[in-house]
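Protocol step 4 of 6: structure prediction from sequence.
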Amino acid sequence: MADIRPPPLRLDPRLRPTVEVVERPPAERPAHDSLDAIAEWLVGPARRIASGARVFDEFAWRMLATGLPLLRVTLHSPTLHPQYLGATFVWLRTTSQTEQTLIAHEVADMIRPEDNPVRRVVMGGETLRRRIDIGDAVLDFPILHDLKAQGATDYLALPVASAHGWRNYMVTYVTDRPGGFAEREIADLTRVSQRLPVVADMYSQRAITRNVLNAYLGAKTGPRVLAGQIRRGTGEEISAVLWSSDLRGFTARSDRLPGVDTASALGNLPRLTVRF
């Protein structure tokens, strides 16, 4: 076995915060489904579900209900956010849960490009397949070692083109069936995955709009603008305090440090909340 083991990566939880966890009750999990029905669901009813995590959770359960031998399904979605480069949705059959997390920009800097399947698929457009259970398996990504420990036998990562054209989504499928995926199953997974952008683009654009407005207008004003309160000349009277302050020694420090280090130091300052 070609056990190419990259060094383990220990991430600060603040760089990968959990946004939502979905656990569908057993009675609501489909027992039977078809690929054609899932394709039609993606372009119709799926767009009316409240959150992207709930859509992906139902998608994974429906794919399992077709008879596909799925252990794990993930979707990696790029975004525009000053703190986060994207969101990841992970469904696991063994936990019966879908977890949505945000991925900070710093995470990409901590992983070598050759060790990062997300970078290779999302930005490079590669399709990756790794058999995990064979004698000469090439385990060249850290995630493959984790999956092997869970009993996985086959890993497939597909680029899925966004309608907006700026980057791909990445969807992965993992099985724990001896012998891995059949070629027919690979073709079926690839075909259905091409429908995912119909809903992924919608939820992604909602998140981008919300993120940008919240970042530059604030968590209170951003949602109000998004809700339609944008008419010129309207306003609201509020009680507020304008506080101007300086940082001790900042001028000398900014003269001494490179600009990128100064910006990083400002970004790491603790936040102060004052209540009246």
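Step 5 (inspection) to follow. Residues 6 and 142 are 6 Å apart (CA to CA).
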